[in-house]
Amino acid sequence: MLEFPISIRPKADLLEEYALVARALAAPARLMLLEQLAQVERGVEALAEKTGLTLANCSQHLQHLRRAGLATSRRDGKAVIYRLTDAKTLTLMDLLRVVAERNRAQVDRILRGLTDGQDAPEPVSRDELAARIRDGAVTVLDVRPKDEYASGHIPGAHNVTLAELESLLPRLDPATEIVAYCRGPYCIYAHQAVATLRRHGLNARRLEGGLPEWREDGRQVVRIG
Amino acid sequence: MLEFPISIRPKADLLEEYALVARALAAPARLMLLEQLAQVERGVEALAEKTGLTLANCSQHLQHLRRAGLATSRRDGKAVIYRLTDAKTLTLMDLLRVVAERNRAQVDRILRGLTDGQDAPEPVSRDELAARIRDGAVTVLDVRPKDEYASGHIPGAHNVTLAELESLLPRLDPATEIVAYCRGPYCIYAHQAVATLRRHGLNARRLEGGLPEWREDGRQVVRIG
DNA sequence: CTAACAATCAATTAATTACTTGATTGACTG
DNA sequence: CAGTCAATCAAGTAATTAATTGATTGTTAG
Q: Dihedral of CA B21/B27/B30/B31: which sign?
């Protein structure tokens, strides 16, 4: 009779299992994929295009994420749709960022480079933004690509890509506060948008976290189509 | 004039920074070191002995942890003492465990092997244990090595290694609940102790987390010497 | 200053992991 | 059922990372 053998080095085997999860987070390509999956579930080909990975490479990275339990997949006709397993994955991603920002001077240097050395103001909390939306006292900008905006965005947010932002500047009111958001903790679009807006004298801040975190808080999200 | 160059691929560079933190967690040897550092700060030689790594290898792993911001070091005479940077590191370690336990059947299999296939009871929360200690209605066992017990333990806990446990069995009262704890989320001593105790008809459960988590809650810890 | 000790560095080898290419599988479509 | 499309697999190469060994640095003690 064949049984699953019990581990003869349980401690080493357990550590190996935990390390497997960490290894899944240990490649930039997979962090990029997780960021995408945090926006909306997608098939392998779409993910490959979004991230610039080749199809086979993308598939292999996704399988790595699935083995580690960070993503799951289901078949839908010819396509295999991947999504994040649960919010624990988002939490893990954000903790990585927090630790890196606290302890790696290099991270500050990169973020500062995004704003031409200006000091960026503190981000707006999601609670605060929700309150200001209720009062109508804020312009909300979603700085992600059109398709991601379409698959879910904060109610009332206007979709403006960075390329479009310049042409929008004259129509923005310097008296109204602007809050910009993007994909979440790893995304730099909102940083860049806020830097551009402030350079032009507008009162702009970033939202803390991005659309995935807003959704995860259980707040309302609007879909198109 | 030389300046720090601003990043020309800020997104890729940021992801590389976050992946660096994850990579630090991606080796069993380093997880073992982090578990040790969670008990008490130590020099490189002591850590090498505790983990079974060679001195040079241990030093290199510790430097990897330091680069990632998970550990920090200070010089004390001839010795270099390493410690965890902050509680974020503990949180990261525990999240790895949670994700692995939720999604990796292999983890269940290993943990079940520790208890001869018995179902283990739910662990006791730290709040509950604190309350029971106040009432005097519980025997607390610290199942770690003597030196780790000496460097900090839960008030009133008795230090019993697994090797000593058998000889203690006759002196334990089946009517009093026993709570066992060890190093924390990656440690299996408490699992094994509880399994042994229950096999002998005693009413034993594990503490949720270990000494580092208890300390992190801001609860009292006793030192010897 | 010299000896002793703790830790790190440098260089090599072994082992893993990432990416590419081309073949294969599975499921729908006409 | 053949054709098509999406994804995976398999095999090979390139790149990274881990562990070992021996030399070197910094610090204290005598």
A: positive
